[in-house]
């Protein structure tokens, strides 16, 4: 029988991470500096820096895990975390939508059809949870989670994300290191870990890049800085 880490053991490893690990900020800023100099269309620069920054978030988590010998127990086809609210800003939503629009035609059509069915199926039941005030309501996560409505990008037949490589930061930073059953048995498992603090480096680098483009007079399909300040549920952005 497989033995999993206890909550205490996970907490101890996280504590030593916090005390000893230094986030490599340079990796984040290196990407935007590289794309700032690149001779490429603005849309290419924006989408490439967005997806590369997301990848750096994932790489940084892997590096932290390695440093304290943590191994995620999340597995392909396990998608309980895809029933949590995902909140992103309008800039990230536009990046996602543009990246989906650039998927190969058959994949893009599948996503589009899926989204049509999704909003037909959940339209009415989504209304109350998408009105939950995530700034003021301290209980909004649990209320949203209780609705048992999946993320719009989740294929509930395969339990796989239809936009996996561009999945937003909250999806990458939520990890389980103990028995996967804790996610199945609890709406809000206390054992899971969030690396959401990496948002600072990720969004800091993106903002720096957009600021640079803004000063140059071309931010492409992004309305800057307005888009960086508007936050909403992914299910509202993709509607
Ligand atoms: S975007 Fe993908 S990974 Fe994130 S919650 Fe939705 S289905 Fe899950």
Structural description of this entry:
The chain is mainly alpha-helical and 239 residues long. It has one domain (7-237). It is built from 11 helices and 6 strands. It has helices at residues 7-20, 25-37, 42-67, 90-101, 105-130, 140-146, 169-173, 181-185, 199-216, 226-229, 234-237, and strands at 87-89, 154-155, 160-161, 174-175, 193-194, 231-233. The protein has a two-stranded antiparallel ribbon. Helix 2 packs antiparallel against helix 3, helix 2 runs parallel beside helix 9 (199-216) and helix 3 (42-67) packs antiparallel against helix 9 (199-216). It is globular, with a radius of gyration of 19 Å. The model has no long low-confidence stretch (mean pLDDT 97). Bound molecules: iron/sulfur cluster.
Q: How many strands, what sense, and barrel or not for the largest sheet? A: 2 strands, antiparallel
Percentage of residues assigned to helices: 55-70%
Q: Determine the N-to-C terminus distance.
A: 44 Å
Average pLDDT score: 97
* Count of discrete structural domains: 1
Task: Give the helix/strand class.
Answer: mainly alpha
Rg estimate, integer Å: 19 Å
Number of strands: 6
Query: How large is the share of residues in beta strands?
Result: 5-15%
Uncertain parts: none
């Amino acid at each position: 029988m497989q033995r999993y880490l206890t909550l205490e053991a996970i907490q101890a490893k996280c504590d030593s991470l916090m005390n000893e690990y230094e986030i490599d900020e340079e990796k984040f800023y290196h990407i935007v500096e590289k794309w700032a100099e690149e001779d490429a269309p603005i849309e290419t620069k924006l989408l490439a820096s967005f997806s590369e920054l997301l990848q750096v978030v994932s790489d940084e988590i892997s590096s932290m895990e390695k440093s304290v010998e943590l191994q995620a127990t999340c597995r392909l086809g396990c998608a309980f975390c895809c029933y949590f609210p995902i909140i992103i800003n309008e800039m990230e939503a536009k990046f996602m939508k543009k990246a989906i629009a650039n998927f190969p035609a058959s994949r893009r059509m599948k996503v589009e059809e899926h989204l049509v069915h999704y909003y037909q199926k959940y339209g009415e039941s989504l209304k109350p949870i998408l009105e939950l005030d995530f700034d003021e309501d301290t209980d909004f996560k649990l209320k949203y989670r209780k609705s048992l409505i999946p993320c719009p990008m989740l294929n509930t037949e395969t339990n796989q994300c239809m936009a996996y490589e561009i999945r937003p930061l909250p999806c990458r930073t939520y990890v389980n290191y103990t028995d996967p059953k804790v996610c199945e048995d609890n709406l809000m498992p206390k054992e899971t870990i969030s690396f959401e603090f990496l948002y600072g480096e990720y969004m800091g680098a993106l903002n720096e890049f957009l600021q640079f483009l803004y000063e140059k007079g071309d931010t492409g399909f992004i309305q800057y800085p307005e888009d960086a300040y508007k936050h909403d549920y992914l299910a509202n952005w993709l509607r």
